[in-house]
């Protein structure tokens, strides 16, 4: 007794099981978070090492190389990417995906601690951490007010807005963009200090010693004990004016005698503009695993409450960028396509069966298979994202397959005059092996996809397992519930169709007889067709991801090293004005410089970089995003003074990494390759990470004079740093207010930095007093690197270009033919990075998954059929699907990319299902009825052609809305549906003719005496 007959005898447990699974699945569906793409937890550890005032070249030698060498011994380390800027080293350690993040974090921290003693003594404590939030902001807002100045607005964002948003579930962090920070400036008077023998270092140290709090000691006044706390903080800026500065030998001077105290704002290092108006922006980042939509809605409600409270101050929050609208659009579009595909599949079933009872029985498999899948997704922590919803949409036709086969077989047995119960029992027992085999082949095809290694595995783990769960649930429905419903509902009527063969069937069987009589020609034609389909591959463009229409465009702006914030702001405004006439651009938000709330963190770009975010109109009211991006690139070609990068999402850029220990050869090769890339048709906005050397003011101590006067290098460096930029942020004294601390910065007048003679007159401490800086050091204007990039312990230069109208595969092929790429100097390596590296992993991963899936299919079929040769008959249909898939991809101009590769994986399982239906029935005819191979093949074609057509057309109908791309942006799903539909059309038509010929040929092989793999059951 199998499950099907057991459920017929005991229907209540099966019905109760699916009622409970459906209820639990419905509840799980309500709880599942909604995201655009699944969270990818890559084992990457960030290391920040700060040494204020140190130059990049110095940090490379004294810090970066030592830490990199220590990290090199860690197990599972994949890449080490280092970026070195002024006073800061950022190292990103990338591990293989199998490495647990906590283990990678502990080992990385231990590796840094091992070399801590060899690092400079003034290096600040290293920061070692793993990313805890998504890399891109979920939403970005701009805040403007007609009554509040920039400093108050910035503090409002740092305090009230940040506190309110961090209370929203799912928010990981809030980063301010633009704005200014309040700061107390102590502007020293060089003449007064020189007259009194005071240096800026003395002022900074005196302020640091005079302000602060410390606890310690225990008092016992009265009957109890009291903690002792020393409070030496200043609460108002004017109190600093009276601060006494010790001069030694009992002398002191008031601060206002040598400096001017002002309570104002710090020098701006960032700015934010919305359509040319100054605003204060903030980006909100989502925590891993959080629901994007719920988080964004919580943020919106929190900001609405703040906006209501701030109406009197004229505050207004404007959403300027975000992925939530696109995510919600994709979610609604996927659900709509899921419903449309299900309805079309059900209509196909009704069109063939013409019986509403049978159609209802088959259609019930869809919700009863999908709802338990939601329950398993909830248990495993999956989300409703593009890939899991795609899995649901693409298996709509598959889910109804098993029910279609069983219902059609039950209807056939009912026409033999059997009762409903007897017909159901006989039909489900007859079809049991075929149903189990078809489901097993689908499962073993998708499991390798779910278990791919590397970055592809992170993306498609949820897709693969969701498909497997849904297919297994459909098998459970077909085996347990479909027989019960068929016995109850189909007992009152029968499927109406003529018992006699119709004209289409007669023509089809005539074609099968012709192919069986000319098996050699049929198999030769199939082989040639397969070879022809492979020949189409070079003509199909290859890529990573199809370009998506997300409703916003990001533009990276980069100026030459040494540019000021005003220069970058001017360049951003020039770009905005150049884009003003482009149709479809609704708003332009510019984030210039570093994040306002983290001024000391960024490495590299600083005030010389900016990001423009173009908000686009609704999709139906504008051209496509790709057309707008092309117009943007054309408009920016005429804007001088900066380098622009348009787009930047996955699949939109090509990235090349040149690495070498020979820095001159690396720089020369990068420059030549960059020049040649500009001549490659289709590529635009070619840019290099090799910065032009920036101007530097170099102070070189004169060793003999410095030693003679007792001046050390540390004193010179500290004097220069504090005089021109103030002390480091962590060491600045603080002005304590009720809810915040305001930094106090000691600095010479800003005009000092523009006067080389004035810098030379700065006083530095020496034996017996103060001496001018120029008397112990030489000052000169020179050039030096603004940033140093290292890749796997070598210097590297990254070249990027926008793909525009060419595919990633075309761009890679064109790059490899360039003379600079073919004739690399000794020691210089050209590495594939970014999308090219991921695309290579994806192709290798999918190729391995396909091969593994086919091998697993063969093993499963051998076990189910008890034969080593007949599985080859079933698998012979697989190559027949490729010609249709490749032909439709070529005809529609689609690329061979991630979604189309998913479609090819699906085809392997779907085509095998149809082939199994034919071969299983033919084997049954030979084994139980003693038919010859030709007779069994014809009988199988006669009985199984209709269910094969039904299942294929149901799957095609289910994917038709996806292929047409109706409604929401279907750029990711469309290539997959196109490949599947094309492959189904060709494989269904060809396999109905070729598989019978292969079956008869294989059956003839086993009659030879040399055949040792004979199945006795088939020789009767």
Count of β-strands: 30
How many distinct helices?
A: 33
Largest sheet: 9 strands, antiparallel
β-sheet strand percentage:
15-25%
The poorly predicted ranges are: 494-500, 596-604, 1009-1020
Taking the alpha carbons of the first and last residues, their distance comes to 26 Å
Which whole number gives the mean pLDDT? 81
* Rounded Rg: 36 Å
Structural class: alpha+beta
**Outline type:** elongated
Give the fraction of residues assigned to helices: 40-55%
Task: Summarize it.
It contains 33 helices and 30 strands.
Describe, in plain words, how this protein is organized in 3D:
The protein has 1020 residues and is α+β, with helices and mostly antiparallel strands. The radius of gyration is 36 Å and the shape is elongated. The strands form seven sheets. Strands 1, 2, 3, 4, 20, 21, 28, 29 and 30 form a nine-stranded antiparallel β-sheet that branches. Strands 5, 6, 13, 14, 15, 16, 17, 18 and 19 form a nine-stranded antiparallel β-sheet that branches.
Output the keywords.
1020 residues, alpha+beta, 9-stranded antiparallel beta sheet, 30 strands
Strand and helix layout:
Elements: H1 3-9, H2 11-31, E1 44-50, H3 56-71, E2 77-85, E3 88-95, H4 101-114, E4 127-130, E5 139-145, H5 150-166, E6 171-177, E7 182-188, H6 190-196, H7 200-210, E8 213-219, E9 226-231, H8 237-240, E10 244-248, E11 251-254, E12 259-265, E13 270-274, E14 277-286, H9 292-309, E15 315-322, H10 324-353, H11 356-363, H12 365-379, H13 386-394, H14 396-399, H15 401-414, H16 420-450, H17 454-489, H18 503-517, H19 519-535, E16 552-558, H20 565-578, E17 585-593, E18 609-616, H21 625-636, E19 643-646, E20 653-660, H22 663-677, E21 684-688, E22 694-701, H23 703-709, H24 713-724, E23 734-736, E24 741-747, H25 756-760, E25 763-766, E26 769-772, E27 777-784, E28 788-791, E29 794-802, H26 808-816, H27 819-822, E30 829-832, H28 835-865, H29 870-875, H30 878-892, H31 898-928, H32 933-964, H33 973-1005
Parallel strand pairs: 7-24
Antiparallel strand pairs: 1-3, 1-4, 2-3, 2-28, 5-14, 5-15, 6-14, 7-12, 8-9, 10-11, 13-14, 13-17, 16-18, 16-19, 17-18, 20-29, 20-30, 21-29, 22-27, 23-24, 25-26, 28-29
Helix pairs in contact: 1-2, 1-17, 2-12, 2-17, 5-9, 10-11, 10-13, 10-32, 11-15, 11-17, 12-17, 13-17, 15-16, 15-17, 15-32, 16-17, 16-28, 16-31, 17-28, 18-32, 18-33, 19-30, 19-33, 28-31, 30-31, 30-33, 31-32, 31-33, 32-33
